[in-house]
Amino acid sequence: MDLTAPAIELTDLDKFYGTFHALKGISLTVAKGEKVVVCGPSGSGKSTMIRCINQLEEHDGGTIRVFGTTLDDNVGLIDEIRREVGMVFQQFNLFPHMTVLENCTLAPMLVRKTSRADAEATAMRYLEKVRIPDQAQKYPGQLSGGQQQRVAIARALCMQPEILLFDEPTSALDPEMIAEVLDVMVTLAQEGMTMICVTHEMGFARKVADRVVFMDKGEIIEEAPPEDFFGNPKSDRTRLFLSQVLGH
Amino acid sequence: MTAPAGSARLRRLRKAYFGSPLSALMTLLSAAILGFILWKLLDWGLIHATFDASGTQETCAAKGGACWSVIATRWRVILFGIYPYEEQWRPALACLVVAGVIVLSCLPRMWSFGKLALTWTIGTIVFYTLMRGGILGLASVNEQQWGGLPLTLFVFVATGIIGMPLAIGLALLRRSDYPVIARVSGWIIDTIRSLPLLSILFTCAIVLPFMLPGFLIGEKLYRVVFGAALFFAAYQAEIIRGGFQGIPKGQEEAAKALGLSYWQRMGRIVLPQAFRLALPATINQFVIAFMETSLIVVVGFMELLAAGNTAFKTGEWKFAYAEVYVFIAAIYFAFVFGLSRYGAYLEARMNVGHRKD
Ligand SMILES: Nc1ncnc2c1ncn2[C@@H]1O[C@H](COP(=O)(O)OP(=O)(O)OP(=O)(O)O)[C@@H](O)[C@H]1O
Ligand SMILES: [Mg+2]
Description:
In chain A, a hairpin with a 2-residue loop joins strand 4 and strand 5 (69-70). Helices cover 40% and strands 24% of the residues of chain A. Chain A is α/β, with parallel strands linked by helices. In chain A, 48% of the residues are buried. By secondary structure, chain B is mainly α. Chain B has 2 domains: 83-141; 149-356, MetI-like (MetI-like fold), CATH 1.10.3720.10. Chain B is 74% helix and 1% strand. Chain B has 15 helices and 1 strand. The mean pLDDT of chain B is 86. The interface between A and B is medium-sized, with 29 and 25 residues. The site of adenosine-5'-triphosphate has 11 residues of chain A, from strand 2 and helix 1.
């Protein structure tokens, strides 16, 4: 793994579900420290694309490079990439049978072979960062949605990844909890984390994104810095989408 | 304003049992029937029963109640079968060892692979040494002479110890990403489940020796235990699969995204949650397995129930079969009731922190 290479390089990425062509030759490069927001209508392939990056979905064509390492069928390589690429899901996916602290220390201890004491210290540091250190001994089922999603972010951070992927992290939250999660994400962005966020929070995109990527029907339609993307969209489809998302 | 808790409770009871004339009638009627049965049982089992070992058919009949004298004189046959009489302290001790190991492994603080493996290895060695003998100056006792409670316990525990890992293996293979493996595992499970346990036991005891090479045949008891374990595993594998189906897909994805390997995902995320969901059915399966140990009598083993049957086969005790069956039923009840209470305890314990979902 070469930390001077681009963080993520997707070239002509193809993905099929049976005969359905879900990704049609996607190419996207994300530099280290860059923040990319991905948006687009439902079913456009946003989740599929970012799930290919950590191989929760296998791609059928094209190449994926993470810090210069090309992903192929080598299982060991996939595990190595997953260590450096954290992911936050729409449904949180916390482990319900473990406390918040155990959720955060599990992977560092198993995968990175960190000692329990070190893992717990790191976990407490990140739980403080997402502002819920007092919930460490609780179970996920005892927390609100916003708190759960912040734990999920802390859990991903505990692996000290180079890249964080977010798949609609606020879509399952009540409106009053969205802000607390976005705040944490803004902080991470400002600290220089490399991030790819699938989200429809356009305020967040304006504030932190270096680039906004618009997808439709398995293709990248437009890719631009937020000022241009929102101020001067080139494609009709982007304009239509923006009017729908921002319209109300 | 709140009514005192006691009177609210009383009101609820009254509503439940005397809410209408009909329900009041039913309540009184059921109470009368229950009371009558209970009284009859007490009268037979305690008040007019004979307890001392010197009781005979005549003296018992004269008192009119149960003749527990049969237990007092024949309990060693019931508990230990045809195990040599002078050596019966050994199966007694062996039973205690098994019971001790079971109780130990039920304690949450013992739940690590290392501790459990150590406990069970030591337990098995001690049990086997005591029962089989042949070393340490203990007279050798062939497996064919084992009987009664230790045999029942041995078959049950061994079925569980061999069957559970088999079940986990079959269940994991059945959800394999490779369709061939998943299908083969499915076939194995479905085949075993469509055979009656009796036919599996017969096959293992009688048919298998003709098919296997000599060095693989082994003692009949172990072949039978293997058959019972296979049967247990097929059903338990389906129970575990049911547990898998209750786990959201995102759980395994989250574990993958964190870089956990296949075995770490299974061991830490998938199986613990599957067992939680499958706990009631799993306890049920263990209860059934315990009851089914009595089937090994058909291939010539004198387990608890069969040993009990011999206890009243001698002329003088022919009349006292009810007492013997009540005694055996009490032993089964103690085990199964303990098992289900333990299941309830586990469920309560696992529900900690799950109040919201
Ligand atoms: N496992 C699957 N099997 C078959 N089709 C799938 C599968 N997963 C996704 N698809 C299809 O692929 C397309 C892209 O799905 P994807 O989840 O990537 O969309 P998305 O852009 O994330 O949409 P949303 O905003 O609703 O999350 C959709 O048409 C979907 O129906
Ligand atoms: Mg999606």
